[in-house]
Design brief:
The chain contains twelve helices and twelve strands. It folds into two domains: about 190 residues, inorganic pyrophosphatase (n-terminal core) (Alpha-Beta Complex); about 130 residues, Diaminopimelate Epimerase, Chain A, domain 1. The chain has a six-stranded parallel sheet, covered by helices on one side. Strand 1, helix 2 and strand 2 form a beta-alpha-beta unit. Helix 5 packs across helix 7. The relative contact order is 0.10. The protein is an alpha/beta fold. This is Exopolyphosphatase-like enzyme.
Length: about 325
């Protein structure tokens, strides 16, 4: 039976090390769909810890990494998978709860993450699920207490994740996040951190920005826009940040479409709103919502619309239909909030 311990204390450390020290073990790590910096940095931290105990490790994510600079920095340390599937290996979920998955029921060996939701019904050999704002803070404590070497790249990724989730310790942070921030920052590469936080803009971003400005709809301090059909939806978080720079706008949602999916990204400067909750209420029945209180995203299968999307003549009508549906749900939920 799983025993609950407070923090990563002696007993929890012993249970964790015993699990990783089993001979011949191989660890498969899964993180959430369309992972944010926190999901990726904390997964990489667990990978580093497992390698410290001489395990073979593979890290997988589903969906897409929206920050191209972050994806390049991670390189082959994380790999894309079409879906999360059960494995004969020791399996870990990082920043991902089994209860969040739809379809096949998978019981991982290890679950590490943060949540304010229901943890009932999670069965695994080891779990550490807390109400801290970032999973990276949890993994920083693991690195520190287990005495695992922290290189500059890992430290920078963890610091970037904590800064990203808490707006550089301005909002939604806990004492644990603060302690982890000050511990890890002395190892970080500030030049790399600056590159992650201020990635160079590609020409695609400015083209999408132009369409976003032309298509914007504003209601009070809230904005909705679409960039239309794109080859790479990874530009829309940057476009959304530009939308928030418009005078009087505190909340923005950007929509993009490709051949198979509808991509939605939303961000807010309004501390009274929780954008993850907003998107869940508006689109949770259509697709998994990831992110946090300040910014969140979801991808929605195009479904039967995908057939119409293949015909050029039908694309404008399809885009209008999707935009009207997404915007009406978005503004309705915001008004209710």
């Amino acid at each position: 039976m799983h025993r609950m311990f407070k923090g990563f204390n002696f007993w929890k450390q012993r249970a964790f090390k015993n699990l990783l020290s089993q001979p011949g073990n191989r660890l498969t790590i899964y993180t959430r769909n369309n992972p944010d910096p926190d999901s990726l940095a904390s997964s990489l931290a667990l990978k580093r810890i497992a390698e410290h105990y001489n395990l073979e490790v593979a890290v997988y994510y589903t969906g897409a990494i929206q920050n191209r600079t972050l994806a390049n920095v991670l390189g082959d340390d994380v790999m894309n998978a079409p879906q999360i599937s059960s494995s004969r290996n020791c399996t870990a979920f990082v920043d991902l709860l089994p209860t969040e998955l739809t379809g096949e029921k998978i019981n991982p060996t290890i679950v590490i993450g943060h949540t304010l939701g229901n943890k009932e019904g999670i069965h695994c050999a080891y779990q550490d699920i807390r109400t801290t704002e970032t999973t990276s803070s949890i993994m920083t404590e693991y690195l520190k207490k287990l005495g695992v070497a922290i290189d500059k790249r890992l430290a920078t990724l963890l610091l970037f994740a904590i800064r990203d989730k808490t707006r550089t310790l301005i909002a939604n942070f806990t004492l644990h996040d603060l302690e982890s921030y000050w511990f890890i920052h002395k190892y970080a590469d500030m030049e790399l951190l600056n590159s992650l936080e201020h990635p160079s803009a590609r020409i695609d971003t400015f083209e999408d920005l132009s369409r976003a400005i032309a298509n914007k709809i504003m209601k009070g301090a809230s904005l909705f826009t679409t960039v239309g059909y794109v080859k790479d939806p990874g530009t829309i978080p940057r476009v959304c940040k530009y939308m928030l720079d418009i005078e009087g706008i505190s909340t923005a949602l950007v929509l993009a479409i490709n051949a198979t999916k509808i991509y939605v990204y939303a961000e807010s400067k309004n501390m009274e709103l929780n954008m993850k909750n907003v998107l869940k209420k508006a689109f949770g029945e259509w697709g998994e919502v990831t992110g946090g209180p300040l910014h969140a995203n979801t991808s929605i299968p195009l479904g039967v619309f995908g057939i119409a999307a293949s015909a050029e003549s039908a694309k404008p009508l399809l885009l209008k239909s999707i935009s009207d549906s997404i915007s009406s749900r978005y503004f309705y939920v915001l008004e209710a909030e």
